[in-house]
Amino acid sequence: xxxxxxxxxxxxxxxxxxxxxxxxxxxxxxxxxxxxxxxxxxxxxxxxxxxxxxxxxxxxxxxxxxxxxxxxxxxxxxxxxxxxxxxxxxxxxxxxxxxxxxxxxxxxxxxxxxxxxxxxxxxxxxxxxxxxxxxxxxxxxxxxxxxxxxxxxxxxxxxxxxxxxxxxxxxxxxxxxxxxxxxxxxxxxxxxxxxxxxxxxxxxxxxxxxxxxxxxxxxxxxxxxxxxxxxxxxxxxxxxxxxxxxxxxx
Length: 250
Description:
The protein is an all-beta fold. The protein has strands at 10-13, 18-22, 25-30, 34-37, 44-48, 55-65, 69-78, 81-89, 101-104, 111-114, 117-119, 130-135, 139-143, 146-151, 154-159, 165-169, 178-187, 191-200, 203-211, 225-228, 234-237, 240-241. The strands form 4 sheets. A 7-stranded antiparallel beta sheet has the order 1-4-5-9-8-7-6, with no helix packed on it. The relative contact order is 0.12.
């Protein structure tokens, strides 16, 4: 963090080449991206304005930020597509490092790449880590007093800032209680997750189970396994009931 940004917004240069596309056309290509933590959970890419290929036109809208200052929104234009209001500049920001940068809305672009590999949802935090370890500890999952999973062959996923997650083989789960959900979510570290509801008698527990059928390469150890929200079920590990953690998913 530089002296021009004393203790407010975390701003760090990044050594990766970053490219983004809209409508099949290149929007930006830079080897000078900047990671900005607008909130504590994950960073956002800000790109040098000089490295944009797409045209920016003022949208007439503005966005204010207590820490970043007054922002001006722009439409992003390429040959065959426009992303309205998808670019933001803080030209007079109190955070000096941001004044020559552009924030492109991640979801408004069609694709993002770090070097030659696609990224999803948001940039990966260089200070977050995912470790997946095989474990023979006895894991039991109860919902409403009913045991729905019992395994000694789990994969425990440790992710910075979140409780350990216990991924279990489907053969150790009472799959007759699970109902496929239409819900999906994406994780920049693990990929696209599918969800299930749990139906016990007349009680339905929606989207309480998830799994990654085809996870990203760094998370292949959880492929085909399923996981229950620690925050919403009772999990016993080697006979000891775990307290339900507090997290953004509580």
